[in-house]
Design a protein that fits this description.
Blueprint (H helix, E strand, L loop, with lengths): L14 H6 L2 E3 L2 E6 L4 E2 L2 E2 L1 H15 L6 E8 L5 E12 L3 E10 L2 E11 L38 E5 L12 E9 L7 H9 L16 E10 L11 E11 L2 E9 L5 E11 L2
Antiparallel strand pairs: 1-2, 2-6, 3-4, 5-8, 5-11, 6-7, 7-8, 9-10, 10-12, 11-14, 12-13, 13-14
Helix pairs in contact: 2-3
InterPro entries: ACOT8-like_C, Acyl-CoA_hotdog, HotDog_dom_sf, TesB_ACOT8-like_N
Protein name: Thioesterase family protein
Pfam families: 4HBT_3, 4HBT_3C
Length: 273
């Protein structure tokens, strides 16, 4: 089966359906990540991170909102997956929860989630401005193509560069409006984390030839207690300032439809070209 095909015998699940189908037992939560969530030989990073976060929030609930997700993509993920979570530390204002995802291929994803209550501070500073771009209804969607990874069909994407993300450029930058095809009803932090990894690595826009790539580490900070947007659209900006010797370090920003910064982070990406 090519990576763009979905097995006829396998159900195509939305984010909500995949999480709702998860079961608990033996101190773990079990999920099935099907071929419709794959990219090559592993699952889309956003869905494995979302399964880990969902497990952490169900098994270790609290009233502090998610502030930071730290993810390590250690091995391939797909099919039957078990997530084990543990409380690392809990205080009056915060809690740290660890999660380990193991699938049919072995150990796949490690995550640490920090949940923190807001507190009053005399420091109030924001210096990251949104790019000046057109509205999503003025841009074209990424077209259907046999090479598209299966998971990308969960999203509508409208790059500012036109119908594609481009390559052979002098800078490693992708700016794209993204929304879910099936809008999730789950916790908005889970939904946004699952969407935050939707873009290709920024370094791909500087490629002159293509080859394997793989995100290895990912950190995402959430700057609002309840991330919501208008009409489902999020503006994703991914930029790499340093690509050398097979490694790209990229920054990632998410703005809501009103251009307010709601999340920021970064990834380390391995390049095999």
């Amino acid at each position: 089966m090519s990576e763009t095909d979905v097995k006829a015998s396998e159900a195509v699940l939305s984010l909500d359906e995949l999480l709702a189908a998860g079961t608990a037992g033996d101190g773990k939560r079990h999920y099935h990540i099907g071929s419709d969530w794959m990219q090559g030989r592993t699952a889309y990073g956003g869905i494995s991170a979302a399964a880990a976060l969902h497990s952490a929030m169900v098994e270790h609930p609290g009233d502090a909102p998610l502030r930071t997700a730290q993810i390590s993509f250690i091995g391939p993920v797909g099919g039957e997956c078990d997530v084990t979570t543990r409380m690392l530390r809990q205080s009056k204002s915060s809690r740290f929860v660890g999660a380990d995802l193991v699938s049919e291929s072995g150990y796949g994803t490690n995550a640490v989630f920090s949940f923190m209550k807001p507190r009053e501070s005399h420091v109030d500073l924001e210096q990251i401005l949104p790019p000046e771009i057109r509205e999503p209804d003025q841009l074209e969607c990424v077209p259907e193509h046999p090479a598209r990874p299966s998971f990308t069909r969960k999203f509508e994407m409208r790059p500012v560069s036109g119908r594609g993300f481009g390559h052979g450029k002098d800078e490693a930058l992708i700016v794209t409006w993204v929304k879910w095809i099936d809008q999730p009803a789950c916790d908005p932090h889970i939904a946004l984390l699952a969407l935050a990894d939707a873009l290709p690595p920024a370094a791909m826009t500087a490629f002159h030839q293509f080859g394997p790539i793989s995100s290895s580490t990912w950190i995402q900070h959430f700057l609002t207690d309840h991330p919501v947007t208008t009409d489902g659209w999020w503006l994703l900006v991914t930029r790499s300032h340093h690509v050398r010797r097979g490694f790209s370090a990229q920054d990632m920003y998410i703005f809501d439809a009103d251009r307010r910064l709601v999340s920021m982070g970064g990834q380390g990406v391995a390049l095999y070209i």
